Fold this protein.
Amino acid sequence: MAEPPVIVRIQAEDFNGEAEIAALTDGRTDIGAVVSFTGLCRADGDSLAALELEHYPGMAEAQIRRIAQEACRRWPLYGVLAIHRFGKIAPGEQIVLVAATSAHRQAAFDGANFMMDFLKTEAPFWKKEHWVDGSAGEWVSAKDADDEAKKRWAER
Amino acid sequence: MVKLVYFAWVRERLNKSSEEIELPETVETVGDLLDHLAERGDAYADLMSHRNTIRVAIDQEHADRSERIGNASEIALFPPMTGG
């Protein structure tokens, strides 16, 4: 079987999740399941003006591609998509979209879940807080819970 | 010469996003590189007080401390990642 298509885009501009997912299944009759995840900029309270997403150009795309290809190796996926934005993103705006297609739901769920867990901990992106009063806040700290989430996928 | 690139608070603490340096022959691994950088002045020494937190990539692939630098052209130092 041919390698499933892997689409990875790193971009400043927003994306249209509905159109992206429609393109994944366009003209296909063998796909029975599409699972997608959209990550948004979340504000706890009303003092956050934006999260600034810094990335390592080149490696960010290469690393997400490696993660997507690993997902295709582990599950019978028909295609995967990952779009990650960089730059300043306001609360409520979209940051990331991950989608996986398959014949059946379980592979699509697992593939999308796996890609997000690895993307959080291995794709070179960093978030910095900017406050509504114009001051720059802290770099967001990595969470132990994200490392734990990744360990669930260790191959035995 | 090897190009070093820095991201997020590593970049801010060093006040530069990249630099080219000549590595002595004694610098063979990622761990050796961090030891060497710690000797380059106060900002580097301060940064290396967080050395267990800092991640390293060689030619855009994650590398652990024992990995050999070899003929790498670009080595990146950055904090744990927080994308998604």
Remarks:
- The radius of gyration of chain B is 12 Å.
- DSSP finds three helices and five strands in chain B.
- Residues 2-78 of chain B form a domain with the Ubiquitin-like (UB roll) fold (CATH 3.10.20.30).
- Chain B has a mean pLDDT of 97.
